Fold this sequence. Notes:
Elements: E1 13-15, E2 18-23, H1 29-39, E3 44-47, H2 49-60, E4 68-70, H3 71-75, H4 90-97, H5 103-112, E5 119-123, H6 127-132, H7 137-142, H8 147-157, E6 163-165, H9 171-180, E7 184-186, H10 187-213, H11 217-223
Helix pairs in contact: 1-2, 1-9, 8-10
Amino acid sequence: MSKKNIVTEVDNLVPVRNVLVSVSDKSDLEDFIPGLVEVCPGVKIYSTGGTYDMIKDNILKDQAKGMLFQVSDYTGQPETQGGLVKTLDFKIYLSILTEKYNADHQGDLQRTQAVPIDMVVCNLYPFSETVAKGATLEEARANIDIGGPTMIRAAAKNFLRVASVVNPGSYGFLIGHLASEKGCTELQARFDLAKKAFAHTAEYDRAISEHLKTIPLADVMKAYPIVHERGE
């Protein structure tokens, strides 16, 4: 690792000014988002796809302007067809991984007109639930989340500054914590959330691995008949 990325200074309390929200399970957003807006005045929320639509149309409504932004507008890159790629963008990970007291990181933020993301709220495509219903191989494959685990891991890695929130069950605690800390997250809370985040992605990957082990190659070839032996 480059010595330029070794962290030697952190803040215990980090004000929550910019939040990235991209969730498959939208449970309790109708309580969490208004609570977040109340305890973190001036907060800006960046979101994707169906999550953005729900927050805009059903939660914030007239409050959305100037507070809620599409990730595609922030990055300058539209979502791909069907939402295949939404958050896998340099600017997003710069925003999540930068450090406050690293002059090079701060220079990168200015160069790209990026903002530091202080909280990532993300949970994953319902892989286990999908295969439990007797999904086809293609349905299971489509529910392997890529951008979500990457965002979660980036935020959890940078628990020194970023809160990684993966479970709607944490929303109530988090709003209470933010209220008691005047719109900030404390290092202990960010570290505890990071542990939950890594457990979440580990469980997700384990479920995928165990399911794929049960599928013989013959079933794969039946699901995806080979048209060309070599790509053309």
